[in-house]
Design goal:
2 copies of one chain form a homodimer. The first copy, chain A, is mostly helical. Chain A is built from 10 helices and 3 strands, in the order αβααββααααααα. The first copy, chain A, has 2 domains: 63 residues, Winged helix-like DNA-binding domain superfamily/Winged helix DNA-binding domain (Arc Repressor Mutant, subunit A); 145 residues, Up-down Bundle (Four Helix Bundle (Hemerythrin (Met), subunit A)), CATH 1.20.120.530. Chain A starts with 23 loop residues before the first helix and ends in a 6-residue tail after the last helix. Chains A and B meet through α3, α4 and α7 of A and α3, α4 and α7 of B. Chain A binds a DNA duplex through α3.
DNA sequence: CTGTGTCAACTAACATGTTAGCATTCCAAT
DNA sequence: ATTGGAATGCTAACATGTTAGTTGACACAG
């Protein structure tokens, strides 16, 4: 009776709500999104509304809205009158996301380099020093957090609040795939050096140098993602 | 009893559905979006779900989803437990949209210039000839259509299908504001000349020249938008 | 063993009822 | 006349019932 490929009793563990704030729909959205990005809900997973409703103790309305939003982000695909599943990776989408992120972030860093204030510069150098501290302590997680923080700072210094959101939206697939990469020995140190060059260029008010440094920095990640399609073909469409 | 500023009996004319295809939610979304972009629903308009439901002959579900999506696009703002209104313009948002569009389109045109095939080039030159025809016939609307078509072609030639969607999403506010501009005498001719330079650069496989030509072309529009905040302050927040 | 058609189970999409928060108004008290 | 506060009316947010279309399994014919 029990087939060899007993796939899923669908017992998924969602990061229980209650701790989160805002409307129910918002909380459900965040819970699902977190689970998807953390690969707790791997690509191909069937999202059963009913099950999610029971598990979170809410009705179908907020769950439906959450799934609709995730579909808009490209993390979930909805098949009319049939079901919703977590999207699989596609190398072309990853490349597209990287292209988009690069386009936006290069423009942003050039603008910031051209117009930066002293205050902004000191906030960036302060962030850089924090990165150095994390490296000294071999605190990978901390370094990752400060890394993301640096990119956020650059976006915010453009004065355009939605830029970060949109860049992140395009970047989502890349970020999700990144979860699969083992942290590479020495990569953090390498990234730190690249960050230094970027911030040096901002200090020098040299937009072109900033662009090039950022471009070099961003191109690294996609390169490291390529082999995934060989090692985990089940996650790609 | 009748106040001097008798504002709105809310009798809004929506482009009736039925002609459209897809789910109800999709159709309602398109209808509302079209009406907003055409300024049939001017900034500040209160969107009353009940009224829209009656007028379109559907229930609140698809209308709610449509409004949610429009809010995600920034065309509508939802005030919890109160109501939804069409967003007013904000010059900073227009600048942000233009910055985003520029970042994406410059990257796109540079990539296309570097990698274009003969076939793509001939499709672009064919489009350019169509533009010339429209100019000869003083067909402003036709020129506008071919103008948009040219930008779409460039996006599609990158091989990244979602690029056009995202650029358009950022561009929405700019496009909406553009409706308010009277067509300027000789502007179409000027735009045509700019298009020619762009396509020349693509022909020469010169990414840097293509970038600069496109940048010049895009910067025109925002400049023309600036005076609006003086002439129509009621539409800005 | 393979291809085809029917049927049952499941799902998204849609409709509608319920709840609770905000705003506006209107009246009363000062 | 001005202010404060209760009451009313409106709305989004949430819950739940209904409809119709898709999928996949199973029986049956070739």
């Amino acid at each position: 009776m029990s087939l060899p490929n007993e796939q899923d009793p669908d017992e998924i563990a969602l990061p229980d709500i209650g701790k989160l704030t805002g409307s129910l729909a918002q909380r459900v959205y965040e819970a699902l999104r977190t689970a998807i990005l953390a690969m707790d809900l791997p690509p191909g997973t069937n999202l059963k509304k009913q099950l999610i409703c029971e598990q979170l103790g809410v009705s179908r309305s907020p769950v439906t809205e959450a799934i609709t939003r995730l579909a808009g982000e490209g993390l979930v695909e909805v098949v009319p009158q049939s079901g919703s599943r977590v999207t699989k990776f596609s190398m072309s989408e990853i490349h597209e996301g990287a292209f988009l992120r690069e386009a936006i972030e290069l423009a942003a860093v050039a603008k910031v380099a051209a117009e930066r204030t002293e205050e902004q510069l000191s906030e960036l150098t302060r962030n850089l020093r924090l990165q150095a501290l994390c490296l000294e302590d071999f605190d990978e997680a901390g370094f990752y957090r400060e890394d993301e923080r640096m990119h956020e700072l650059i976006f915010s210094f453009t004065g355009y609040p939605k830029l970060n959101t949109l860049a992140a939206a395009g970047w989502v697939q890349v970020n999700r795939a990144r979860q699969l990469l083992l942290p590479m020995r020495g990569r953090a140190q390498e990234a730190y050096e690249e960050h230094k060059v970027i911030i040096d260029a901002i200090r020098d008010r040299d937009p072109e140098k900033a662009r090039q440094a950022m471009q070099k920095h961003l191109s690294r990640l996609v390169t490291r993602l390529e082999p995934l399609i060989e090692s985990r073909p089940d996650l790609f469409d």
